[in-house]
Amino acid sequence: MSKSVNSSNGVVTEHDPPHEVNKNKSANFWQNVFVGSITGMSVVSIIQPMIYFKNTTQARAAEGGQSVVQVKSFEKNPCVWYRGVAGFAASFAPTVAIQTAANGIFSNVWNPFFAASAAGIISAVVVCPAEGVMIQQQKMGNNFWQTVKYVYTNYGVQGFYRAFTPTAIREGAFTAAYLGAAPMMKEKMQSFGVNEWVAQMVTGVVAGTVAAGISHPFDTFKTQKQGDFSMKMSMIKAVFQKTAFAGFGWRVAMITIATTVIPFVQAKLNAKIEQARH
Using one digit for the tens of pLDDT, what is the confidence trace for 160-218? Predict the structure, then answer.
């Protein structure tokens, strides 16, 4: 049996005799699910305030038709910044778990970049309703279950999947950055003798910024559409043309942190698990 762990992103792959392939694939799948869940939970508390600032900027930009919102207009109470964090944490952990596990499967047959992107697109099934509820919580101030009831009562199941397509595109770009591009860039830099920490930071910033630039218009469209159910498509398009990059700075910070922290923690956790197995 031959097994390897990617030193950059920790994704487990195997090269086993036929009679052991299914057994090891199952073990690796659940290992990726576990590691993805832990890393997803660990980063939520860091990025939640940035998500609040980004969402608020996008919502107020939609109201005023301007892409820049003054910082002084934000709530100063940290409790408001973390409104909806429980629901987001409960969704982000399985989201990263799905992305990590799906990437582990796809990377056996596809290019790492495309495998990661496909994993992100699949995860939109969980991300879209979870973020839609969080955005409504931040807007109305209700608790999680009150918000779920409000959306379901007024808009049905389809209300939870409002803006699904832009969500899937955004997640595809985000996952391609932290599970695809960043690990490949880090591995390349380390092959030239660059320190692991330096390589992780540089690749996180570069991959995160590029991913944010590509996907942010889709994120803005998604956030504005999920934030105001009364807006017609023609209105959303008109607003979007003026505010496509509203909240871009906050999202760059958020994705840069996630793209730096998640692959690093995943690689370390997987290395520890592999050591324990042997």
Answer: 999 999 999 999 998 998 888 888 999 999 999 999 889 989 998 999 899 999 999 99
C-alpha span between 46 and 27 (Å, rounded): 30
Q: What is the pLDDT of residue 171?
A: 94
Contacts of 178 (CB under 8 A, 6+ apart): 116, 204, 207, 208, 211, 255, 258, 259, 262, 263
Rounded to two decimals, the pTM is 0.76
CA dihedral for 105, 107, 110, 113, sign (positive or negative): positive
Task: Say what the pLDDT of residue 41 is.
Answer: 81
Dist. CA 62–CA 56, nearest whole Å:
10
Q: Identify the three-state secondary structure at position 196.
A: helix
Number of residues assigned to the chain: 278
For residues 266 and 33, the answer to whether their CB atoms sit within 8 Å is no
- Alpha-helical (H) ranges within the chain are 18-64, 78-81, 85-106, 112-140, 144-155, 164-175, 182-191, 196-227, 233-243, 248-277
The answer to whether residue 21 scores a pLDDT higher than 50 is no
- Report the amino acid identity of residue 17: P
pLDDT at 9 over 80: no
Structural domains of the chain ordered from first start: 2-268 (1.50.40.10)
Those residues whose C-beta lies under 8 Å from the C-beta of residue 227, and which sit 6 or more positions away, are: 55, 58, 59, 62, 135, 136, 139
Angstrom distance (rounded) from CA 77 to CA 100: 34
d(CA 257, CA 266): 14
According to the model, what pLDDT value does residue 64 have? 66
